[in-house]
Amino acid sequence: MGVAALYVSWDQGRVMREEVRASVWPALQVDGFASREEGGLSLGLRVQNAGVGPARVERIAIEHRGEQVPDLDAMLALMPADGDLSLQTLEGRIIAAGDIVQPFSLHYADAIAEDAVDVMGRLSAQWSVEVCYCSVLDQCWVAGQDRAAPAEVDDCDGPHTHLRPTPKQPGGDREPAGGNP
Q1: Residue 98: inside a domain
Q2: Is residue 45 assigned to a domain?
Q3: Does 163 reside within a domain?
Q4: Using CA atoms, how far apart are residues 102 and 50, in angstroms rounded to an integer?
Q5: Which of 41, 26, 37 lies closest to 119, judged by CA?
Q6: CATH code for the domain of 81
Q7: How far is CA 152 from CA 7, 50, 60, 139, in A?
Q8: Whole-model pTM?
Q9: Residue 139: phi, psi to the nearest 5?
Q10: Which residue of 40, 66, 111, 167 has the smallest Cβ count within 10 Å?
Q11: Who contacts 136 (Cβ-Cβ below 8 Å, separation ≥6)?
Q12: Which pLDDT belongs to residue 17?
């Protein structure tokens, strides 16, 4: 009888742990976008938490044609020129369930005549984005625009892209990424 009671107690504890994990599960969706608006073209990246719990973003890694992009300046050098840049910090951010963050977007006023769908198709074939994030219980996942569903991982170690503006030095030059703030 004591063994049966011990098993039932253990099983109830296991079920409760699974219920807690499910009740705080974040699920990030990562998508690039291109849209025509206000007489121009907007391109960017959108990250949405479609889960039920908050997501703590640990890192973002961006690749262009299979090569790691180290920072914002390197990424912008690979994008069409003359876009107006908007940024939102992603790394270290807590994204609540249902919230959307646009880590970056570029708006081109009539500079790109292509249809937005054609631009998105061309760019999505060249770029890959991966976002690693964790729940409040320190369970971690990797999501990306090439993944149907987030994949659970042990931790968020790995390559990352620094998407923060590099401060300008006197004379207009930018400091190298990782320079003193």
Answers
A1: yes
A2: yes
A3: no
A4: 15
A5: 41
A6: 2.60.40
A7: 28, 16, 16, 8
A8: 0.79
A9: -85, 140
A10: 66
A11: 24, 53, 54, 56
A12: 59
Name the H helices within 24-95. 72-78
d(CA 15, CA 112): 55
Question: How many domains are there within the chain?
Answer: 1
Domain membership of residue 40 (yes or no) is yes
Task: Write down the H helix ranges in 96-153.
Answer: 116-124
Sheet of 100-108: strands edge to edge? 28-37, 40-49, 100-108, 84-87
**Inter-residue contact 59 to 160 (CB < 8 Å):** yes
Which residues are 63's β-sheet partners?
68, 128
Q: How crowded is residue 49: how many other Cβ atoms within 10 Å of its Cβ?
A: 23
Query: C-alpha distances in angstroms, 111 versus 76, 79, 80, 105, 126?
Result: 16, 13, 9, 15, 20
Q: Residue type at 28?
A: L
- Which residues span the domain enclosing 63? 31-153
Split at pLDDT 50, 70, 90, the class of 121 is confident
